[in-house]
Amino acid sequence: MTVNETVIAMIRPKPGLDLVAGEPAEDAAAARACVAAPDGIGAITS
Q1: C-alpha to C-alpha distance for 17 and 1, rounded to whole angstroms
Q2: In terms of C-beta density within 10 A (0-12 exposed, 13-18 middle, 19 or more buried), how is residue 34 classed?
Q3: C-alpha angle 23/6/20, rounded to 5°?
């Protein structure tokens, strides 16, 4: 499962911010943080 999590973390696309319009503020903030994050794996739990 760790290998699967690593692969998913590497290929995970960045969310479209227009898709979170109208969602709760926490969800929009999480999407903005994901878009602003540098490319790469990062933490598996993220």
Answers
A1: 29
A2: middle
A3: 10
* Residue appearing with tokens 């999480």: 30
Token duo for residue 34? 């994901």
Question: Which residue is it, tokens 């969602």?
Answer: 23
Read off the pLDDT of residues 30-43 as tens digits, 9 standing for 90 and up: 888 888 877 666 56
The four Cα atoms 21, 19, 4, 41 give a dihedral, to 10 degrees, of -70
Contact (Cβ atoms closer than 8 angstroms) between residue 20 and residue 28: yes
Tell me the whole-structure pTM to 2 decimals.
0.55
Q: Are 15 and 35 in contact (CB under 8 A)?
A: yes
Q: Which two tokens stand for residue 17?
A: 């911010």
